[in-house]
Amino acid sequence: MIPDFQTLMRPVLQILMDKKIHKAIDIRGLIIENFKLSEEERNELLPGGSQAKIDNRVHWALSYLKKANLVQSPVRGSHEITQNGLKIFESAPERITIKFLKTIPEFKQWQDEYKLSREEAVHNPEIGDTESTPDELLESSYSRLIESLSIDLIEKIKTCSPTFFENLVVDLLIKMGYGGSRAEAGKVIGKSGDGGIDGLIKEDKLGLDTIYIQAKKWEAAVPVSQIRDFAGSLMGKKAKKGIFITTSSFPKSAYEFVANIESKIVLIDGNELADLMIEHNVGVAIKRTYEVKRLDIDYFEEN
């Protein structure tokens, strides 16, 4: 299990007790070795996939130790313990936490200067009350918003007509780069006797190949028989590529079936459909944009 960033503060400080300058990557390596993290754990990413979780937690452990003047960075990307750090380490508890750092004047002063506004404090826990880093809190909150939006999207789609859903699917594929403009790229069939095919779209702007579409609103998992029928429809049109999209899910047998046939059929369930719609801004609108900025070390380099 990957230790939280507060649990890492004392081990990080202990690594620096040799009074040598250590690169951040070397501190990371020693932490991984000390806690015997597995390959899977060392490669585990933050919810947003932007950074390895262990890298982020070591970064924030170092950051808060710096705020308390226990660690300093004499060279970019490198760290060493301060005289204050050497002194405090001897009396520090077995687990250095934000609560302990608050007893250090330098950290208390920094926190007082940058504390949350009264309104924000009502809606956000103090960093000392959580084991998550600020990046983890931000990304997990974003993930929860996306998860909620995904649920809302699928529920809304289920209230729409089958024809609307078929058009939505074609719109999404065009946004993903298939075929060019809406007028020339996508054609919704959606008529009785269409051979189990709801639409088609050009694979590229030149129309070198055609992809056939099946779009079905379902509540329960799509039976594998439906996938077999779709594959048969492709064979009837001498087509080799198809996409089967649903608002529900597919059983394991459906994935096994498409993996063992000559035609290439991609299965997109409700979760993936919602993710793609959000990624390509289909059926969603941007409410607010936040920029997350970091210090640009290169800017402060003197020639």
Could you characterize the architecture of this molecule?
This protein has helices at 5-15, 24-34, 39-42, 53-67, 83-91, 98-101, 105-113, 118-123, 134-158, 162-175, 182-185, 224-236, 252-258, 270-279, and strands at residues 22-23, 71-72, 78-81, 186-188, 199-202, 210-216, 241-246, 264-268. It has 303 residues and is an alpha/beta fold. Strands 4-5-6-7-8 form a 5-stranded mixed β-sheet, sandwiched between helices. The protein has a 3-stranded antiparallel β-sheet with strand order 1-3-2. Strand 2 and strand 3 form a beta hairpin. Helix 1 crosses helix 4, helix 9 (134-158) packs across helix 14 (270-279) and helix 12 runs parallel beside helix 13 (252-258). The radius of gyration is 27 Å and the shape is elongated. The protein starts with a helix and ends in a 24-residue tail after the last helix. The model is unreliable at 116-129 (pLDDT under 50).
